UniProtKB/TrEMBL annotation:
Entry annotated with the keyword Transmembrane: yes
GO molecular function, one term: carboxylic acid transmembrane transporter activity
Occurrences of domain Major facilitator superfamily (MFS) profile (ranges): 18-414
Residue intervals passing through the bilayer: 12-39, 59-80, 87-107, 113-134, 146-166, 172-193, 224-245, 292-310, 316-340, 379-398
Keywords recorded for this protein, A-Z: Membrane, Transmembrane, Transmembrane helix
Pfam families for this protein: MFS_1 (PF07690)
GO cellular component, one term: plasma membrane
Entry keyword annotation includes Membrane: yes
PROSITE patterns: MFS
Protein name: MFS transporter
InterPro entries listed in its UniProt record: MFS, MFS_dom, MFS_trans_sf
Subcellular location: Membrane
Lipid bilayer topology: Multi-pass membrane protein
Length: 414
């Protein structure tokens, strides 16, 4: 049972330094996270990998290394966030992924590329969970949905900058820019204060950041697993449908070639509006769950349109569909907010950090499943089966979670 923690914590406003830094941190996070999908073909070609099948295979290998790093980092940063504080994770993760991305601009071999993607993934794992937790714990409960909406809306637009820089300045310089942006962000640390809820809990003898505590209580474990499942459809869309845009475009018989870079650009442009809409909708409906259900339903429709509704279409039509599909999966910050709201202060950062990273890291499992289904059913039908499965499971998960809108976060898990 939850145990109350007193006295009342310090709160802040929607345009506070905390919200601004969390938003800009997520902006750089998304820039660096999605950059590889944009420069995959160009960077691998420059490293001497030019055969089409090798570009696909080695590209998936590098994605798996990055996502594997995020799985490790999600646990590491989540535990540290509850043991050491939200701020230490927020700025520590930014430092690590920034340095890794600068180093990424110097790689000469595939293995160097892979190991640096792993390290960058570990760094990238911490920022969003720490930022969302900090914003959720420092804003009044009736406004925190708007706060996390701002973080997401600003953050996902980092993908568009990544596309522009990658196209204009080349893949190596794009990594340098990403790393430089992260290091510059560390200068904004002044004015950002630690969560009052965390500080209060730290003064008690309550155990904090015990990742294994999520597995020692049946109802708590089920609640946690449901949180993880909600975010998987987004990474099916981004990690498979959009990242493999050239391969899907060829299978659809489009009238011209399409690129993953432009696919990412337009899908993340849609995500900007989707995150704004889902966050606002959850506030207007006074329900996180209903907003998520609506977006998951719309996502199912758009996955069908993407795979089977634009065969023989023009590249322009394809990118329009990418934009709408991006809007449909624009519930990322809402999903992380729900995860944070489901757990007490002593486990909140652990959950809010591991949940999105395990969902991102699901690409590690989705890729071989997709490869197997692709071999049996073809690329379009295989993707349809996998996508529908992730959406059905996510819809069930959100439909059976307790509603968290307006929930008082001043409690701990025993």
């Amino acid at each position: 049972m939850p145990t109350a923690v007193t006295p009342p914590p310090r709160t802040t406003g929607l345009l506070s330094a905390i919200v601004i830094v969390a938003s800009l941190g997520y902006f750089v996070d998304i820039y660096d996270l999605i950059l590889f999908s944009i420069v995959r073909v160009q960077s691998l070609n420059d490293l001497g990998i030019t055969a089409k099948e090798a570009v696909t295979t080695q590209g998936l290998y590098l994605i798996n290394m990055q996502m594997g790093g995020m799985l490790v980092g999600g646990i590491l940063w989540g535990i540290l966030g509850d043991k050491r504080g939200r701020l230490s994770v927020l700025f520590g993760s930014i430092l690590i992924y920034s340095l890794a991305n600068i180093a990424n601009g110097f790689v000469q071999t595939l293995e160097q590329y892979a190991w640096l993607r792993l390290i960058a993934g570990i760094g990238l794992a911490g920022e969003l969970g720490a930022g969302i937790t900090l914003v959720a714990e420092t804003l009044p409960k009736e406004k925190r949905g708007y706060g996390t909406m701002i973080v997401a809306t600003v953050g996902v637009s980092g993908a568009m900058l990544a596309y522009w820089v990658g196209e204009k300045f080349g893949w190596r310089n794009a990594y340098f820019v990403g790393g430089g942006l992260g290091l510059a962000l560390l200068a904004l640390r002044a004015g950002v204060f630690e969560s009052g809820l965390f500080q209060q809990t730290k003064r008690t003898d309550v155990e904090r950041g015990n990742f294994f505590a999520l597995f020692t209580n049946g109802p708590r474990l089920v609640r946690y697993l449901k949180c993880l499942l909600i975010g998987i459809p987004l990474w099916f869309v981004v990690g498979i449908l959009i990242t493999l845009a050239p391969e899907f475009g060829e299978a659809m018989g489009l009238t011209g070639p399409v690129t993953a870079g432009l696919g990412v650009f337009w899908s993340y442009f849609g995500l900007v509006f989707g995150d704004f809409a889902s966050g606002t909708l959850s506030q207007l409906l006074r329900s996180r769950n209903r907003a998520l259900q609506l977006f998951l339903g719309f996502c199912a429709v758009m996955v069908g349109v993407y795979l089977f509704g634009i065969r023989g279409a023009t590249p322009t039509t394809y990118y329009v569909v990418c934009f709408i599909l991006g809007f449909a999966v624009g519930f990322w910050a809402l999903f992380v907010t729900v995860a944070a709201e489901q757990f007490g202060t002593n486990l909140r950062a652990t959950v809010a950090t591991t949940a999105p990273n395990f969902s991102r890291g699901s690409v590690v499992a989705l890729v071989p499943l997709f490869q197997a289904l692709r071999g049996e059913l073809g690329i379009l039908n295989g993707a349809a089966v996998l996508g529908l499965s992730t959406l059905v499971v996510a819809f069930w998960a959100v439909s059976t979670l307790p509603e968290s809108f307006g929930k008082d976060l001043d409690y701990v898990e025993e």
